[in-house]
Specification:
With about 450 residues, the protein is α/β, with parallel strands linked by helices. It has helices at about 10-20, 35-40, 50-60, 95-110, 125-140, 160-165, 180-185, 190-195, 205-235, 240-245, 265-280, 285-300, 300-310, 335-345, 360-365, 375-380, 400-405, 420-425; strands spanning about 1-5, 25-30, 65, 80, 115-120, 145-150, 170-175, 200, 320, 350-355, 370-375, 385-390, 410-415, 430-435. The chain is elongated, with a radius of gyration of 24 Å.
């Protein structure tokens, strides 16, 4: 079975590579020639554990191909996945320009039945727009060629995307015809054989499922951050509260960790898009609007704690920042809390020294204010008046406290992810500030 994936960003590249891994012949398409040239030379544009090895393996056995033009393979494939970007507009709505461009290209060039599958995160109703775009091109050509449009939202966690794709908690498929369902059953047969749940539904429900799932997870994070802030005021310990809550089978323990806010390519964009979808249809998502507001406010929590400690006098201080990506095991810095923190520190007259195990090159494109890039975590801490741990990379979990005590100007650790033990730091002569813990 031959398929095409349009878009070699995070979703498209992982999807195409994993389908090749289970035996399909996959062509990944991207208009960015430089990116395609690099992929053809074995250079992977994103950091994702296990991805590089899988790309190289499937390139070697000739199951995975990279090209700049969809028309080069369109008449050989049975399924085309649309996995291009849907960047948020100023109002938070998803920009469907690239999705519809692909749909028009398909309609203008197809000469046999094609199943078009939206893999990008798109608002409810996008499949209808894709259908119309394809049909308009067919009408313009004066030809009658059958096609279907289906929805297959992705649920990949950055840093664990290969595992999530190969061992999914569920596969959601929105279809409108028996033929489309049969093709997708054949496509996902390796997962059906392994008893992973493949859930078929109507297309609008599939499109909504992605937004609803991400909004729920974002809600849990913002809820716990609100609880952590209240724990700070009341003298409670949010870790104890989390354990008490999570033991309730109706609630569960996942996504109940307090911190300095969520970021990334999914939660912020999807929450904004869901709010906008509701507004366009005359409804106000009061809970989801609050989730977004809480998260934006939470990204300033570390700066507020630092400023309070130094009584608002941060000018000429030197601050070390550990972790720049929005989460561990990725170099993705989109909407990362570190970006907000660094901008606030620089505006306050602080000298900022940063280190991240993977995201340093990406940081140079994302951080617009002057910072000092360091080669390792200990270099960043030299002469620092405080060390702020923002992203909980594994190498940050057990640092040498005596080294930090010796090299820092002032031994203050501000923990944005609540991973350190206060007693251990105290025994090593360091002061400790965290979020929502006594």
């Amino acid at each position: 079975m031959k398929i095409a994936i349009v878009g070699t960003g995070y979703v498209g590249l992982v999807t195409g590579t994993c389908f090749a891994e289970v035996g399909l012949d996959v062509t990944c398409i991207d208009v960015n020639k430089e990116k395609i040239d690099r992929l053809n030379n074995g250079i992977i544009p994103i950091y994702e554990p296990g991805l590089e090895e899988m790309v190289l393996k499937n390139r070697q056995v000739n199951r995975l191909h990279f090209h700049t033009c969809l028309t080069s393979c369109l008449n050989e494939v049975e399924v085309v996945f649309i996995a291009v970007g849907t960047p948020p507009g100023e109002d938070g709505s998803a920009d469907l320009k690239y999705v519809l461009d692909v749909a028009r290209t398909i309609g203008a060039n197809m000469n046999h039945y094609v199943l078009v599958v939206t893999k990008s995160t798109v608002p409810v109703g996008t499949a209808k727009k894709v259908n119309k775009a394809v049909q308009d091109e067919l009408d313009r050509r004066g030809v009658d060629i059958q096609f279907d449009v289906a929805s297959n939202p992705e649920f990949l966690k950055e840093g664990a995307a290969i595992r999530d794709f190969m061992h999914p908690e569920r596969v959601v498929l929105g279809v409108e015809s028996e033929k489309a369902e049969n093709i997708l059953r054949r496509l996902y047969r390796p997962f059906l054989l392994n008893n992973f749940p493949v859930i078929f539904m109507d297309v609008p429900s599939a499109e909504m499922t992605k937004y609803a799932a991400n909004a729920m997870l974002a809600t849990r994070i913002s809820f716990m951050n609100e609880m952590a802030n209240l724990c700070d005021i009341m003298g409670a310990d949010v870790n104890m509260v989390r354990k008490g809550m999570g033991s309730d089978s109706r609630i569960g323990s996942k996504f109940l960790y307090a911190g300095c806010g969520y970021g990334g390519s999914c939660f912020p964009k999807d929450v904004k898009a869901l709010i906008n979808i509701a507004k366009e249809n005359g409804y106000t998502m009061k809970v989801i609007e609050s989730v977004e507001a809480v998260n934006e406010e939470q990204k300033s929590v570390l700066f507020r704690k630092l400023s309070k400690y130094y009584n608002g006098d941060l000018k000429d201080k030197t601050i070390a920042v550990w972790g720049l990506s929005f989460k561990p095991e990725t170099d993705d810095m989109r909407e990362a809390p570190a970006l907000v923190l660094i901008e606030q520190l620089v505006e306050a007259g602080v000298t900022v020294k940063v280190y991240d195990p993977v995201a340093m090159e990406e940081a140079k494109h994302r951080i617009t204010c002057p910072v000092i890039y360091c080669k390792d975590k200990y270099e960043a801490a030299i002469d620092a008046d405080a060390l702020m741990m923002v992203t909980e990379w594994t190498e940050f979990r057990i640092p040498s406290w005596p080294v930090l005590k010796k090299t820092m100007s002032y031994p203050l650790i501000i923990d944005g992810r609540n991973i350190y033990d206060k007693n251990e730091l105290s025994e090593n002569g360091l002061e400790y500030i965290c979020i929502g813990r006594r």
